[in-house]
Amino acid sequence: MHTDLVAALDIGGTKIAGALVDRDGTLVVRAQRPTPARESGERVMEAVNGVLAELAASPRWGEATAVGIGSAGPVDAAGGTVSPVNVPGWRGFPLVERVGDATGGLPVTLVGDGVAITAAEHWLGAARGHDNALCMVVSTGVGGGLVLGGALHPGPSGNAGHIGHISVDLDGDPCPCGARGCVERIASGPNIARRALENGWRPGPDGDASAVAVAAAARAGDPVAVASFERAAQALAAGIAATATLVDVDIAVIGGGVAGAGDLLFAPLRSALRRYATLSFVQQLTVAPAVMGNDAGLVGAAAAALATRTGAGIPARAH
């Protein structure tokens, strides 16, 4: 069956991934380049152009009708620009215009990476069938996105749902964003590891001081490692409860590397959520692990483009 495709880009500080995605959310062609994150904005754009050129070399490129971009943020969907924290060469970079030029004028939809992952989880993943959902990515940073009333809700700027920068500790540590006590400053992987080290945890002989190593220590019963995950879970629970109270979501989906710790994170998170999500309408809030994995950014960028084109929220899955 002949079906139109969407070109998708997933842009982060480590890699720039691209794909042609069909109406079922299947990635039919893929391309990838490392992000030259420490180089000039033009060098980063060259990597994006390389990915697009590889996609354009596919015999199916002619079926592409739109481009969706999920980018590390902040993004400015209204202005068509991106200023990713971890790509210093891009500040107010006109990515939408440049990608439009590179693809012969295809319509381009830009959203933040957390919004893209939310679109993927709602279309085909753990939030499928939920009209009101919060999806989060907990890894090097903490990002997120919202589905409200059955439709992706990126907000005018494309950043809505950025739960990592809700303050949950009023006099807490300064966050690099400029505020204090942000969810990200407590719950991201590097901050879980930092707190464990500050409180006396020591890496093993291999010297691995990452959150993955802290998780291994916690599984082995190290009380400092356990406490660092519990503190992260508490911060996530407070942020999730605040969001649910504000916009009335019934599921929070959590992905990213830190979610890979499984029950080390989810057990204290569910327990803390009972303490914070106390009003009657948020007591039924469920928490689920994300299921879309590494392709979520690409699938979600495609979903966002399809939603923009149809004006009808996230695409229904063809059967």
TrEMBL record:
PANTHER family: N-ACETYLMANNOSAMINE KINASE, ROK (REPRESSOR, ORF, KINASE) FAMILY. It comes from Streptomyces castrisilvae. This is ROK family protein. Belongs to the ROK (NagC/XylR) family. Transmembrane segments: none annotated. It comes from the Bacteria. InterPro entries: ATPase_NBD, ROK, ROK_cs.
